[in-house]
TrEMBL record:
Residue ranges occupied by any GST C-terminal domain in the UniProt entry: 152-279
Gene3D superfamilies cross-referenced by the UniProt entry: 1.20.1050.10, Glutaredoxin (3.40.30.10)
Residues holding glutathione: 77
Organism lineage string: Bacteria, Bacillati, Actinomycetota, Actinomycetes, Micromonosporales
PANTHER family to which the protein is assigned, alphabetical: GLUTATHIONE S-TRANSFERASE OMEGA-LIKE 1-RELATED, GLUTATHIONYL-HYDROQUINONE REDUCTASE
Record-annotated site: Lowers pKa of active site Cys: 233, 276
Region Disordered: start-end pairs: 307-334
Organism: Krasilnikovia cinnamomea
Protein name: Putative glutathione S-transferase
MF terms (GO), sorted A to Z: glutathione transferase activity
Length: 334
């Protein structure tokens, strides 16, 4: 399966299923606890956002989660982590089956995260940018007591603005560098990425979080790229002006979030590295997965509390992850 665009710049296919699960059910899918299953892979940064938001908001009872393995073939993600290779709730081997159950001729990407309607076995949506916002806004009736406001109304315009920059230049920017097929396309993506990282460093040098004085959706979206930077993007995607650990402000900011309940405890570095280095065979044809980098630094003192801020605002940290959702021993930074 080829990812590099031999003619130049990588362009992400953003034709996602726009159906939404909403409180009023206007798209035919009302919020109902137990009805839907969130399918993720811990390897994927877009899916990682939903894992974090679901945990911060305490939606585990209302929205179950199926975890696909870290690799996939051209057909789709598989449930090879589960006994018998089948998701225990949906009963399927491949996420593709849920997409085809609703759209038999579906010809776009079979992507995670995806929300699946359990009674019908049909995919509802894979629109990752909208899913996390809807978890905050549409599922509010089922949030845990003390859940933070990740998308507060007074800050939405600024959050949206920051998110647009971060998506275009950082979240997707690392892919534009990694999948560039010409020197010109790579150089353009490389400089755009690091110019934005410098902008983010300046912004975060005097404030603890990206928007306001609490964790918001904007921090979740940046974090899932930063946490993959040194293990994958620096080498595999040639984003190598500096490592994250050599950018003092962003490194401290990322460690601050990593050490916050709901962030670092969702990160599976083994799955992350295995996905990128095994799946992208046109970049890494040997499929050799690197042993490094050393992850001990993620748990070192970051000093960001001196900037003030209240991580969860008037809310509280989430409880520890459920036993069945704990990252396997040896896969995290501890």
């Amino acid at each position: 399966m080829a990812y590099v665009n031999p003619s130049g710049e990588f362009t992400r296919d953003q034709r996602y299923i726009a159906t939404r699960v909403t409180a009023d059910g206007r798209d035919g899918y009302p919020v109902e606890p137990g009805r839907y299953r969130l399918v993720v892979s811990r390897a994927c940064p877009w899916a990682n956002r939903t894992i974090i938001v679901r945990r911060l908001l305490g939606l585990e009872d209302a929205l179950s989660m199926g975890i696909a393995g870290p690799t996939h073939d051209p057909r789709s993600w598989t449930f090879d982590l589960d006994p018998g290779g089948r998701d225990p709730v949906l009963g399927i081997e491949r996420l593709q089956e849920a997409f085809f159950a609703r759209f038999p001729d579906y010809d776009k990407g079979i992507t995670v995260p995806a929300i699946v309607d359990v009674p019908t076995g049909q995919v509802v949506t894979n629109d990752f940018a909208q899913i996390t916002l809807d978890l905050s806004l549409e599922w509010s009736r089922y949030h845990r007591e003390g859940a933070p406001q990740l998308y507060p109304e007074a800050l939405r315009d600024e959050i949206d603005k920051v998110n647009r920059y971060v998506f275009a230049d950082v979240n997707n920017g690392v892919y534009r560098a990694g999948f560039a097929g010409t020197q010109e396309a790579y150089d353009k993506a490389y400089h755009r990425l690091f110019d934005r990282l410098d902008w983010l460093s300046d912004r975060l040098s005097a404030q603890r979080y990206l928007v306001g004085d609490t964790i918001t959706e904007a921090d979740v979206r940046l974090f899932t790229t930063l946490v993959r930077f040194d293990p994958v993007y620096h080498g595999h995607f040639k984003c190598n002006r500096q490592k994250l650990s050599e950018m003092p402000v962003l490194w401290a900011y990322a460690r601050d979030l990593f050490q916050t309940p709901g962030f670092g405890d969702t990160i599976d570095f083994v799955h992350i590295k295995r996905h990128y280095y095994v799946v992208h065979t046109d970049i890494n044809p040997t499929q050799v997965v690197p042993a490094g980098p050393d992850l001990a630094g993620w748990l070192t003192e970051h000093g960001r509390a001196a900037l003030g801020g209240r991580p969860f605002g008037d809310g509280t940290p989430p409880p520890p992850p459920r036993p069945e959702e704990v990252v396997p021993a040896g896969h995290g930074a501890a």
